[in-house]
Design brief:
Number of domains: 2
Number of helices: 3
Helix content: 10-25%
Structural class: alpha+beta
Shape: elongated
Order of helices and strands: EEEEEHHEEEHE
Oligomer: single chain
Length: 155
């Protein structure tokens, strides 16, 4: 995944590159802007209408499911902050989010790469409050602190 300074991200798989960005709207978390062919002789160059979310893009182009799955994984990888990651250098900008939540996970269900969520706690009004609550959870629950965007907060 590549990230541009303007909040846009680029995800590549199977010779396709999706351009997308997080929206800060819990109902439409990912806006898909375009998909380009990365081959030598590009034949695919699709620009989606403004505010096209991932579900809409998936509906319009279901044959690109592997691309949409990877976009979703990269979105959650970016916004899921494992407890303690701040001390490892991966720091979110607390001012960018109004609230925070804690997601607990277990091993993969086998339907996709990565862990599966088992529970959500929150919202918390500050990153510090969420971090404090996460320290009370068993490490076996693998708590992750994630941004929580209320419906009333849109860009």
């Amino acid at each position: 995944m590549e990230s541009a300074g303007d909040g846009e991200h680029r995800t590549e798989i199977d010779g396709l590159r999706a351009v997308w960005r997080p929206t800060h709207d819990i109902g439409r978390e990912i806006e898909v802007m375009a998909v380009h062919d990365t081959g030598e002789n590009p034949v695919i160059d699709v620009t989606f209408a403004p505010d096209t979310d991932l579900a809409d893009a998936r509906e319009h182009r279901p044959n690109w499911n592997r691309l949409w799955d990877k976009v979703r994984r990269e979105f959650w990888t970016e916004c899921t902050l494992p407890t303690g990651a701040r001390s490892e250098g991966a720091q979110p900008d607390p001012g960018s989010y109004m609230q925070w939540a804690i997601v607990t996970t277990v091993g993969s269900c086998g339907n996709h790469d990565g862990p599966c969520p088992t529970g959500v706690w929150g919202p918390y009004n500050s990153l510090t409050e969420a971090e404090s609550a996460a320290t009370c959870m068993s490490a076996g629950h693998s708590p992750h602190i994630v941004p929580h965007w209320p419906r009333r907060y849109q860009r």
